[in-house]
Amino acid sequence: MIDRLIDNRGLDSFDYRFLALVFAILGIGVLSIHSVTHSQQTGLAPYYIKQIAWIVMGSAAFVFMLVSDYHRIARLAYPLYGVVLLMLAFVLFDGRTSKGAQRWIALGPFSFQPSEFAKLVLILVLAHYYSKTPRVGWLQRVIMPGMLMFPGLVLILKQPDLGSGLSFVAVYAAMLLMVGVRSKALGVILLLIVMLFPFAWEGVWGSLHDYQRQRIMAFVDPAYDPGGKGYHALQSRIAIGSGELMGKGLYGGTQSQLKFLPEGHTDFVFAVYAEEWGFLGVLLLLVLFVALIWLSLEIASKAKDQLGALLAAGIVAMLCFCVVVNIGMTAGMFPIVGIPLPLMSYGGSATVMTMASLGLLLNVKRRRLSLFY
Amino acid sequence: MAISGTHESELGELQRRLMLLRVGLLLVVGLLAVRLWHLQIREGPYYRDLSENNRTRSVLLEPARGLIYDRHGVLLANNVPSFSLYVTLEDVKDREGLVQKLADLLGLDPVMIRKKLAVRGSKMLPKKVKDRLTLRDATVIESHRLDLPGVMIQVESQRNYPGGMAAAHLLGYVGEISPEQLEKPEFADLHQGSIVGQYGVEKSFDRHVRGQAGQKSVEVDALGHEKRTVSVDKPLAGNDLYLTIDITLQKVAEELLGEESGAIVALDPTSGDILAMASRPGFDPNVLSRELTSKQWVEIVQDERRPLNNRASQGQYPPGSTFKVPMAVAALESNTMSPSSSVLCTGGYQFGKRVYHDWKATGHGSVDLHKALVQSCDVYFYTIGQRMGIDIMAEYAKDFGLGRETGIELPSERVGSIPSMAWKLKVKKEAWLPGETISAAIGQGYVTVTPLQMASMIGTVANDGVSYRPRLVQAIMDRTTGNLQELPAVARGKAHAKPETFRIIKEALAAVVTEGTATRAKSSIVTIGGKTGTAQVAALGKEKKAEKDIPKKFRDHAWFVAFAPVESPKIAVAVLAEHMGHGGSAAAPLAKEVIETYMKLRAQELAVVPQS
Q1: What residue of A is the nearest CA neighbor of B31?
Q2: Which residue has the higher pLDDT, B390 or B492?
């Protein structure tokens, strides 16, 4: 084991492939944001400039998370979670409202979204919990971490922010899958559920009456608006589909340029990209994402200790979940829930949080020898 | 170390589970790729079509309606640009604020604006709030444009009738195509909102005048804002019409009727050209061609005087004694009477137990055909009617165009009725009574005619039996090619009578004016022949009241039909003045005025032509 560590030591210190993938996706994101927003001048700076500023800030967070000791960061998990819960509570009372939901805290000219940071903090909390607690029964494996997650989930759903809520549950489920459930069989079943989700969704959801669906949607997501969501879904499918093989070219996406596609720079940035770059561009992007996640999984599976492995697994799971659900919803496979596409969607909190997570992930890789320092 | 060992094995377990995650990841991303392949490659063309339709909108370009001129090129109908204010509710965030702003800026009634905005319909489509905005108002709105999201000023072409009420019944008016009209094949290439002629020449010549709509394909954004024009298919302007009427004569005729109800038709008997066709009361086609409030519409439709009724071609009246003209022809032609044989009029005509009175209670004495026409002797015509029988009378009446359409190019022409035995069986399901023949002989009873028919009838007499279809349009100018297509006069037929008969009749009619019942039509500048008529509206019983004591609606209609000059007729006129009493006093002077005006206009025209 020591041999293996020594053998890989030189390569492990820093992974430039990883960084290249991150910045390639970030670059595609900025380009798409510029494409869809360049005709609308809003506020002090154009969206793409602001996004670049977020990326700069995200890079700082990335470096900070990379150089700190993740054990120390993990030790701060509970206090951090406390702060996050306070912020989430604060948002409910005095948050900035946008599109019918209170999700933002204003800080001077900036505003940030505590629910984005809550996801990373939850990963820290659960990884810290599992690495410190002997896991002997259901109580320790499933119930306790579930209770840890619960207050955050309730506060997020209160906003309401169905997307972040689902991410929260996904992080919890991924952690359970990794360590919480004992048998491989259960793991397989869970995986199957995830894999079969789109089909199961079609089957169950499709057999319901309209009013039943609307009731369910209204229950799950109080901000649910059939006309609006249906419009988003249709325009998104039209944008993606009309891209065909080669795409309409940069700035040529009529659906997004003519604003038929709402929120083209945030949750639906993938549809903008797909319209302009076509199926070939889409394949390239999928390859980039898969490569990034693959490298991340590599890091998780080679982590030296439980905490590192759990942190890495949680981060990868969250990344996977966001990518799959976002693309799936823009492509009409899932119902529309507000989940940004990591590294591509416009947004400060999500960009900074994702980059911080990736910094932490590389930290896990870098510190594989930390036990021996 | 025990704990650490557990941890070690748990780390191994965790790493094995990460393998599952990899497999899962590949599977899920594979599914995504398949889904995207399906969307972009398999269904790509379908979505491309959808996206094309998503962003392009067809905008109809309304054609300019053809212009309408009178016979001398005086403009009767044109198009004027008009500013209309539209509001697209989809783009309005604060509806009440907008209402207040518009009310302040334009001085409009906020209640009216609210009402217009409340009209049902898609929020995406603009609603017309106000039309005929002044240029100043339009400018005010444009300069406040940024404060007024969703507000739009559209320049529209609006039909305009510079003469106002002049020739209104004839010109008609335009309006939005109705749902029923849209169903009809002749409107197949039109669409909701198209403007079509709804009345008058505007309606009957709509096919020529309306032109052809063009289309513009524009690229729009999700809010419907125009971004770029993709293609333009220009509209084709409608053709111009040159009418046969002389607007000066038309106005004179209308002024002569004044506030009274009635009609005056003047035509050229040698061509059928309608020179003037007045019907009163009238209306302003400018009002009817624009957006009417339902209150305005109800007011017009429920007006007891029925201003939308063209009395010239749609009013059906008993002709009274004017009917004696074709009856006189019939008497001579059917050899019922010779010009010289006479009838003794003692003021009444005994038939069975009933006595039919003459208008002159003391009687006319011995009456031949000439005197019968000049003095309008009823007994003479009772007698010849009785001798001819209703079927011969009907035959000759029809020969002069009564009881059938004249064929004028106006919608909904009425035909009146010329009774015969067969007619009564068919219409009334009853046998003809001999007494009814006597009433019919003096143009009462079942006999009804239109003023247009009577003008045509007297014109036919003036023209020695040759009749032309009355026409209103003499030429159509194609706006795109510039070709002027002259419409020929159309012969309608020939009344079957000898020239000698016409000579005798015309001589008598001339005497009607010089010495008979129509001396008030006597002119110092032109010879006029004519026949008075008084059409009974209600049987008033035995006691004859003074006319001024009878309620107006029960007073008789006054008729006068005339032609001039007697030697070579150039104009035939029919005057009908409702409830104005006797033809000789009420109608004859109007006909004289029309004829004199026309003769003066002609003289001016002829004086000008040689100079040029």
Answers
A1: A195
A2: B390
Q: Do A328 and B20 touch (CB under 8 A)?
A: no
Question: Which of A177, A184, A245, A258 to probe by mutation at the B interface, max B CB count within 10 Å?
Answer: A258
Structure tokens at A90: 């604060």
Catalytic residue among B194, B279, B313, B321: B321
3-state secondary structure of A138: helix
C-alpha count within 13 angstroms, C-beta hemisphere, residue A148: 29
The 10 Å Cβ neighbour count of residue B265 is 33
From the list B316, B385, B377, B323, the residue with the least C-alpha distance to B345 is B377
Chain A residues whose beta carbon lies within 8 Å of the beta carbon of residue B51: 238-239, 241-242, 254-255
What pLDDT is stored for residue B612 in this prediction? 40
Q: Which positions in chain B touch A305 (Cβ < 8 Å)?
A: 7, 11
Among all chains, which residue has been given the structure tokens 């959808």? B50
- State whether B44 and A316 contact (CB < 8 Å): no
Q: Which residue from B minimizes the CA distance to A261?
A: B222
Nearest to B17 among A187, A198, A289 (CB): A187
- The partner residue sitting opposite A241, judged by closest CB among B29, B39, B223, is B39
Cβ-nearest to A194 among B24, B220, B221: B24
Q: What is the pLDDT of residues B242-289, one digit of tens each?
A: 999 999 999 999 999 988 899 999 999 999 999 999 999 998 888 888
Backbone torsions φ then ψ of B399, nearest 5 degrees: -60, -30
B437 contact partners, CB below 8 Å, separation of at least 6:
B385, B386, B389, B390, B393
So what's the pLDDT on residue A7? 39
- Burial class (CB within 10 angstroms; exposed 0-12, middle 13-18, buried 19+) of B415: middle
Instruction: Provide the pLDDT confidence category of residue B63 given band limits of 50, 70 and 90.
Output: confident
Residues 6+ apart with CB under 8 A from B354: B435
- Report the residue of chain B nearest A192, measured CA to CA: B24
* A93: number of Cβ within 10 Å: 7
Q: What is the mean pLDDT of chain A?
A: 80
B44: chain A residues, CB-CB within 8 Å: 241-245, 279
Name chain A contacts of B14, Cβ cutoff 8 Å.
178-179, 306, 309-310, 313
Burial of B231 by CB count in 10 Å (0-12 exposed, 13-18 middle, 19+ buried)? Answer: exposed
Kindly report, residue by residue over B13-29, the tens digit of the pLDDT.
777 778 877 888 899 89
How far is A370 from B248, CA to CA, in rounded Å? 111
**What is the nearest CA distance from B5 to chain A, expressed in angstroms?**
12
Contact residues, chain B, for A283 at CB < 8 Å: 33
Q: What separation in angstroms does the CA of A152 have from each of A106, A164, B439? A: 20, 10, 104
ipTM: 0.84
User: Tokens at residue B338, please?
Assistant: 């010779």
Closest-CA distance, A259 to chain B, in angstroms, reads 5
Give the pLDDT of residue A163.
82
Over residues B363-411, the pLDDT tens digits come to 899 999 999 999 999 999 999 999 999 999 999 999 999 999 999 999 8
> Helices (DSSP H) in chain A: which residue ranges?
2-7, 9-12, 16-37, 47-67, 70-75, 77-94, 114-132, 138, 144-158, 162-175, 184-206, 210-220, 226-242, 254-257, 269-301, 306-330, 348-366
Active site residue B321: yes
Whether the full predicted model's pTM is greater than 0.80, yes or no, is no
Q: Which of A297, A300, A333 sits opposite B35 (nearest CB)?
A: A333
Confidence label for A162 from pLDDT (cuts 50, 70 and 90): confident
Q: B356 forms bridges with which residues in the sheet?
A: B349
> Rounded to an integer, what distance in angstroms lies between the CA atom of residue B14 and that of residue B483?
92
b (16+ CB within 10 A) / e for A165-189: bbbbbbbbbbbbbbbbbeeeeebee
What average pLDDT is seen over chain B? 87
